[in-house]
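Quick start: load a record and inspect it. Here is Dihydrolipoyl dehydrogenase:
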Amino acid sequence: MSDAKQFDVVVIGAGPGGYIAAIRAAQLGFKVACIDEWANAKGGPAPGGTCTNVGCIPSKALLQSSEHYEHAGHAFAEHGIDFAGLSLNLPQMLKRKETVVKQNNDGILFLFKKNKITFFHGRGAFTGAAEGGYQISVTGANADTLSAKHVVIATGSNARELPGAPFDEKLILSNSGALTISSVPSTLGVIGAGVIGLEMGSVWRRLGAKVTVLEGLPTFLGAVDEQIAKEAHKLFTKQGLEINLGVKISKVTAGENSVTVDYANAAGEAQSAVFDKLIISIGRVPNTIGLGADAVGLKLDERGFIAVDDDCKTNLPNVWAVGDVVRGPMLAHKAEEEGVAVAERIAGQHGHTNFNTIPWVIYTSPEIAWVGQNEQQLKAAGVAYKAGTFPFMANGRARALGDTSGMVKFLADATTDEILGVHIVGPMASELISEAVVAMEFRASAEDIARICHAHPSLSEATKEAALAVDKRSLNF
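Running the structure step on this input writes:
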C-alpha cells in the first residue's frame, strides 16, 4: 500500500464529465490523476469517452458530411451550382470522421499535460481503503496502484442491447457500429426513434439507404414539445424516413448478410421486414462493470446507476460520481457541468448544476433543440402559460439559406411572463437555443427577449419574433 502513487483526486473515466472534472480540480490546486482505458485502432490512448470516440463527435462529423452530400445532389442546383458526375467516397468520409475524433483525443491529452494531470491508460477499479482515502488499481497499458483522498467516478454508459439480439457490430449495430458501416446499405432498419436512432438514420438516408424506423412508443419524440415533434415528424417523413410508431418487436434474426425483424404494428398486425443492417438504439445503461464497487461498499440504485445526492456525493465519504453513470439526462454537457461542480465542492466551493436549464439537441436536419418545460408538462402541472411561435419561412436569413423549415416556440408564465421553455425545430437550432438558456438562467421574461435588438438578417430574429408572439405582436408574420 505504501508503494501506491498518491494523489489528492483520482478521476476514473476521461469522458466529458471525467476529463473536465480532472482539469477543474487541477486548476484549483489539487494533485490529480485520471484513468481511462479507451484505445484507438493502434492501441494508444483515446480519452474523451463515448462522446468523443463513438458518440457526439463522430456522429456530428458524419451528419455534416452527409448533409454536404445531400445538398450537392439536391439543393445546390437552386443556388446555380451544378454538379456533373457526383459520387460518394465513403472511405474518405469515414477517414475524415476518424481524423476529427483523433484531433479531439489529442486535444484532451494536451490539456492533461498543460494542467499537470497524470494520465493512466488502463482500467481503474477500487481495491479497498487506503490511509486517508481509497486504493485504486490500474490494469492495462499503464498498470499501477494509486491512492487518493477523493475519487470522482465518471465511467459513463453503454448501449442497451435488445433481448435476443446481441450486438455483433456487423449486422446488428449499436451507435458504435452505426458509425463504421463500410458501404451504404440498400435497406437499414432502426429500432428506436430517439436521438441516436434519428441521427444515424438521417446519416445513412442522406447517403442513399432506405431507412425504416421502428419505435415502441405510440408517440413520436415524447420528450419534445408536441407541436414541435409533430412538425419534425412531418419533415422527416417528407425527407424519406419511414417512421412506424407503437411497434412491438417479437424477434430479431441475423442471417448471413441480412437481419429479419418480426414485429406487430400499432394495429396489432404481424409484420416482418428484412434489412441489410439493423441499428438498435433503445437507450443506454450505466457502466459500472469492473469498477470494484463491492470492494468498498459503493451503493448502486435499483437501475444500476451509482446512487448520489443532489451534490453528486455517493454513500462513501469523498467519493463522487458524475455523468451518465448517475441519475439525470445522459448528455455530455450535463456531465461537464457536474464535473466542474464536483471539483469545486471538493475545494470547499459551492459548485452548482441547474437541471432546469440544460439544453437538449437532436442534430438531424432540421435540428431540434429545447430547454425548460414543454406544453404537455405545463398542462399536466396546471401552470397557466402563454405561447408564441414564429416560422422560419417568414425569416429573411432562412430564405437566403434555402432552409425555411420549422419554427421557434416560446412558453411563458401567464402572470409574470417568465420564460418557462423554448422549443426550436429548424436550421441551426443547436446554436439558437443558447440564447434561451442564458435568458432562463437570468429568469428573463419573454418581453426581455422581445425588447432586445437582434441582428438583421439573422436566424436569431426568429427567436425575437417568437418572444413577441407571446404577446401576439409578432412583426413579420
